[in-house]
Amino acid sequence: MKNQNGLWIILLLLLSRTIFAVIFQGIFALSSTLDYLEAGRWWTVYGSLIDLGCLALMFWVVRRGGTNFKSLIGFSPELIKSDVKQAGIILVILLPITMFWGATISYLLFGKAAAPIVAGPLPLWAALYSVIIWPIGWAIMEQLVYMGYCLPRLEKVFKSKVFAVSAVMFFWALQHIALPVTLDMDYSLYRFLTVIPMVIIPIYYLRSRRLVPLILVHVLSDIFSAISFYF
User: How far from chain centre, in Å, is Cα 225?
Assistant: First the structure.
């Protein structure tokens, strides 16, 4: 029974970011003059509300489980140099793979290497927010939810690294379909498939149990993405 209760908590967290993405796109539309689909172009702005929703949920989960954020993130001043070095290595490996994979999927779906961008255009303040502020909270919460909390607990419940990694990757990819929610099925499929090379991240985490390098990589990757969206 304890494992079943724990599994429901894990499933809730795995789905939380997708659910919040759908909800906050609607809330943003209602609070503006945009319709639901148009509001999706602001997802790097209302994305911070997704992070706050997940943060509140995580507070409830960690208090319920008797753990804390410090133990999940694992930040240590003594390890910061090693964490930065590891982040650099991961970025050097991951960046060309993801760029090549993304271009390939885009070519297969859209007939060109550069996929359509369903983000913006935004006012300058919103574009700057998306480059400077949004990536930080996004990287921390995404890595905390999927890698820091769900991945090791799935491994423990099912006694399988392969299953744990596969489950996390599926729900992580599912989240990207809702960023933003769109009626363009090709674009949704593109968003889902482009997450596949990120399998390097949960594999690394299961070997190292270090979340900080992954957060650093994620922040830099999202900054690069936001710049490519808006500038």
Answer: 13
d(CA 27, CA 110): 31
Give the Å distances, CA to CA, from 221 to 39, 136, 214.
23, 11, 10
Q: CA 130, 226, 175, 150 torsion: positive or negative?
A: negative
Checking if the pLDDT of 101 tops 80, the result is yes
Q: How far apart are CA 132 and CA 126, in angstroms?
A: 10
d(C-alpha 94, C-alpha 35), whole Å: 36
Rounded distance between C-alpha atoms, residue 182 and residue 179, angstroms: 8
For the chain, the distance separating the N- and C-terminal CA atoms, rounded to the nearest angstrom, is 52
pLDDT at 1: 44
- The model's pTM is 0.94
Q: What is the dihedral of CA 206, 172, 195, 168, to 10 degrees?
A: 30
What residue ranges do the domains of the chain occupy? 2-67+78-230
C-alpha span between 172 and 146 (Å, rounded): 7
Q: Count CA within 13 A, CB hemisphere, residue 199.
A: 14
Q: Which residue has the higher pLDDT, 69 or 56?
A: 56
